[in-house]
Amino acid sequence: MRTQASVLHLDLDAFFAAVEQRDKPSLRGKPVVVGGVGGRGVVATASYEARRFGVHSAMSTREARSRCPHAAYLGGRFEAYRETSRAVMGLLREVSPLVEPLSLDEAFVDLEQATEDGAPVGLEVADVTAFAQRLRARVHEVTGGLTASVGVATSKFVAKVASDLDKPDGLVVVPPGTEQELLRPMRATVIPGVGPATAERLRRAGIVTVADLEAVSLDELVRLVGRAHGTGLHDLARALDDRPVVAEREAKSVSAEGTYETDLTDRRLMEGLLTRQAGEVAARLRKHGLSGRTVSIKVRLHDFTTLSRSTTLNEPTDSTTTVARLARGLLADLDTSGGVRLLGVGVSGLADWIQDDLFGEPEPDPDDAELAELAATPPTVRARSVWVPGQDVVHDEHGAGWVWGSGRGVVTVRFETAATPPGPVRSFPIDDPALHRAENRVPDDV
Prior knowledge:
This protein has 15 helices and 19 strands.
């Protein structure tokens, strides 16, 4: 435990939805839900306007629509999210060399190494409070208007808890020595690792709050949840957390997956989809100069049973041909006759070198050309709308806009950008040659 509140946790508020509201003026102040837009989609992020209706992340899109039918349901624009995240992480790294990103929208910052205007940041409570206020203002500026909630404390655990206490656009600094006072009234689920199963096991033992957990001996916790988990709970219930802020977090795996509107039963189609996903994964590996030894697939059956299979190579690879061939081989060992809802391919055991480089690209699988063609235009995917709600588009006459919705041969577009007022809505034939994708459009000021 540190003696001063020098660990900062920053969390961008309703990040995906906030980016959409920033870039789409007509959606500002209105419910927005980002995630899968189909019947089997899952909510990734809901704006605070949508949360008032009970919509939250990890909820099925179907249930979200029933709770908030008037929300805008958007498929997501990950390049816009990445660019905004890069701007924020770059700002944080200007402040301190020790920045630990947890995801696109949150990170820890070690204030012991932080500077401002060339001078070290003061670590008294008043100093870190003023600094955090200025940092939040700078985040608002570099993101084009997004807000962030910040927690500052003597440890990563308490700082993360604090950042969630005054959302959105909040700041909570926990003075040293008051950590347990803050935690005791909270439910035990505030502690990382206390999910539904562990919470139920603790509840049966009469443990509901952090104060209840604090009163239980280490031996009793080990008996209830095992040694490793019990030791962690014992320490965190007492606000004991000495984990450092780690500047570099190496990726452990690279993966791609898809959930489908109707159950897949055609094995050839599944192989084609896996081939396409393998190509996406291999391309990402090559882009970052990585390779991997372990290839795995994830298959969710019609009854929601999820199966995983993997195989490990002697040497790492970044070859699309190799990853696709192994993925298809793993699929061959599974019974998918009842239908498949989700398919995914992943590569782990990452390295920054490729043995294949020494010997040249392996001979292509004779089936790959046919499968690649199938993967490029799978019937199940093509049956879905070409235009995804929220997608950036450009029309030759009307300019930049985004897809409001599509169906029955028509696509509806609202023509506006982050820099314009709410714009007009126009509808076009779904194959209108004047309408084009603009996947990478990001506001100029972000």
